[in-house]
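[agent] plan:
  1. take the single chain provided in the ticket
  2. run structure prediction with default settings
  3. attach structure tokens to the ticket
  4. add a short note for the reviewer (M.T.)
[agent] executing step 1
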Amino acid sequence: MSQRHTSYFWSGTALRSRSVGGVVLSGMVDVPAPPARLVADWERDIASTLFLEPGDVEPLPLARARMRWPDYKQCVQVMAEWTQTLGLDDVLAASDIALMACRGARYHHDGEQYGGAAFCNLFVSEDKGLDVHFPSTGDRIPLVRGTVLMFDTAQPHAVIRRGSAGFDATHFAPDVDCSQLFLTWELPIENADVARALRIDFDTDPSTASQLNEEQVWLNGARASVCPDTGAWRAAG
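[agent] step 2 finished; step 3 output follows
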């Protein structure tokens, strides 16, 4: 039996239903390494301000970084060019952007907070032997400087050690250099070009959407969550 995933997301003041995009778009772009002094600042923030634990994903101050990042505009430009190759025109320029840091990432989906968006990421750290893994689609993409991704926020994903079968906190011990920095954009899922690129259908279950009061992701007619270690779907609760 094929699995049926449904995301219920806020569209204005009402919840709307949609399918979960089953494709992950990825590629490589050429971006210079961030300045060593800026990378050192990020590492200090990760250690002394964010206190990242294994599996954590947290924001870093983007405005401060931009002032010390000569090639920031180039990073934004190459991302705009990459998304245009996907047929997205100028949607990136009108979307929210953030700078994020992670120390690996447990399997999760973001459909209960960002169901109305797709994520578009540009990784700026060097290769540290980590992959981003999408267990439902089978995509496993090495994270190196210049890796770019676009995917449905309701699609389970994790950042795990290359060669591993799942998320293991011991792979991200304090003495291991494994932090990853990336720029992320929130693209509106209702944008026709975004929806087309991720193969999303809308209003797949309007009757259920009309009865809910918060964003949710369902599997085969029931609310579902993701196992943080393996990425397998399971009943929410």
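[agent] step 4 note for reviewer: Helices lie at 36-50, 62-67, 72-85, 192-198, 206-209.
[agent] ticket updated
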